[in-house]
Every structure is written in structure tokens, then in C-alpha cells.
Amino acid sequence: MATHxxxxxxxxxxxxxxxxxxGTGIILGAVVRxxxxxxxxxxDVVVVTGIGCSSRTNAIIDFNTxxxxxxxxxxFATGFKMARPExxxxxxxxxxxxxxxxxxxxxxxxxxxxxxxxxxVNNGIYGMTGGxxxxxxxxGCIASTAATGTMEPCFDMCxxxxxxxxxxxxxxxxxxxxxxxxxxxxxLEHHGFSFVEGIAQCPIGFGRRNNQKTPVDMLxxxxxxxxxxxxxxxxxxxxxxxxxxxxxxVNKEAPEFSDVYWEASRxxxxxxxxxx
Length: 276
Ligand SMILES: Cc1ncc(C[n+]2csc(CCOP(=O)(O)OP(=O)(O)O)c2C)c(N)n1
Ligand code: SF4
What we know:
The chain is of the alpha/beta class and 276 residues long. The chain contains eleven helices and eight strands. The protein has a single domain (5-275), classed as 3-Layer(aba) Sandwich (Rossmann fold), CATH 3.40.50.970. The chain has helices at 24-38, 57-60, 73-83, 95-101, 103-112, 157-164, 177-189, 215-225, 229-234, 237-240, 257-275; strands spanning 45-49, 64-67, 88-94, 116-122, 168-173, 194-199, 226-228, 244-251. The chain has an eight-stranded mixed β-sheet with strand order 2-1-3-4-6-5-8-7, sandwiched between helices. Strand 1, helix 2 (57-60) and strand 2 form a beta-alpha-beta unit. The chain binds thiamine diphosphate (TPP) and iron/sulfur cluster (SF4).
């Protein structure tokens, strides 16, 4: 087991590419601390990413890492999990990568309930390519492709993957980093498709266009607008207005896809042997 989180990072790849105050590093820190706490061996973990600032976590996290094509991390991850079911497979994806170009893959991976932990870094924008709006940009926000504000409602990703069949679903924020770490640890321990949305700040692509001038303003926004599921249960409609929920939404058991597949395969091979 690593004694310090830096043992899970490729320090020789520093400095990283992220802008000062970017929330991606905070989410990465929560992932790494959760893995360190669980004591996974470096060789037993696979981290798969797509393309985007958040997907660049793969450059500095020191496991078996694969940076794939935009939106396709879950397809590659599914292949790894099927070939090596004993490995701990993690996908780190952005809101554009995971809910836009990769949205179809996400709902079907959730439906299949394959044992992959997906961390979706939701900064509400396409950060890497200059701040275009994504399916998770809240309605009315300014983006480089929405000068007067987006006109579409955004997805609630936790509701979406829950409806698709995910068996562990949670949301945290960069501000609530310790809680996020705990949610990620539970997701990693879960046997089945687990999904954790981490609300993060992109001061460059989102904040400066949307009246959140500094990373601290953005973290304060997370603090002021997040409410735990337990607190929300006791809050009035007025207190809940404009708030989003954080915590664990789903934690249930269901048959896991690679178990089902390999068991069926074993039985089919047995039948062939008996027929000889
Ligand atoms: C097929 C394809 N389309 C578009 C792009 C360009 N592209 C690269 S990163 C990116 C946006 C990533 O946004 P997001 O997933 O939200 O991650 P962030 O950068 O905000 O962390 C886009 C559109 C690409 N690399 N490949
Ligand atoms: S553009 Fe946004 S998401 Fe990308 S590194 Fe900069 S602050 Fe982070």
C-alpha cells in the first residue's frame, strides 16, 4: 500500500497542464486519496480517459493508464474489464466527454451494470477547446457558443444514470473534497457500475464569462448552492430553490455484467465438453 498519495502520481510529468485554480486537480486528489485509503496496488488499477482537460489526469496519475478517443473511454474500459475482470477499472471523464459525445456509451454501460467506476468531472463547459457549452451547462449561462446564454436545459447526470440502471450513484463537489473522497471510495468498493459526479470549477472557460471572477468565487458558489440529501429532506421549498443535491443517491446490488458473461461462458464450455 502506498504510504503517501504522491506515490500514485507521476511527479516527473509535473508541471501539469491545468490553469491556476482549475477544479480538476481537486477531483484527481480525491480519487487518489480514495485509492490510497483502500490500499489498491498500482498494478491492479486501470484508469481510462477520453479527451479534455479532465481527461489529462491520465498524464500524471500513475497506474495502468489509457487516454482514448473523445467520448470513448467507457468502450475501452469495458474491453479491459471483460478481459481482466480482476482489475479495478476507473474512467475519468469530462461533462462534454461523458455526457455529450460519450453520452450514449454512458447510458449503456450503466444499463449493463459492468463493474467500472466512472468519475465525471462536471465543470459545466468544454474547457479544453475554449468554453463551448456542453449538455451540462446550466440554462442561461454564457459560453463561447452562447453569447446571450444557453437556451437548453441541462441534464441531471445522476438522475440519467440512475434511470439507465447504475447501481451506485453519487454527487460531490470540489469544495466538499473530503466528502467527495468518501463517495469515490464507496464507488470503488461497489461491485457493479458506479458513477460519481464531481462538480468542479473551470475559471477560464466558465467562471470569467459567468460573473464568477476567481476560482474562490466558484468554490464559494459550490458551497452556497450544494445541499446534502439529508439536509434537503428537512428544508422548505424556499430553502431548496436554486440548490443541487450532494451525497449518495443509489447504492444497490444487481447482477454484474462480467460475472454473468463469464459464468455463461463457463457453462457453455462445460456443455461442449460433456457433448464430446
Ligand atoms: C471526435 C472529436 N471531436 C471533438 C474533439 C475536440 N475536443 C477535444 S476536448 C473537447 C472538449 C472536452 O470537454 P469536457 O469533456 O467537458 O472536458 P474539460 O476539458 O472541460 O475537462 C473537444 C470538443 C475531439 N478531440 N475529438
Ligand atoms: S480550461 Fe478550464 S478545465 Fe481546462 S485547465 Fe483551464 S480551468 Fe481547467
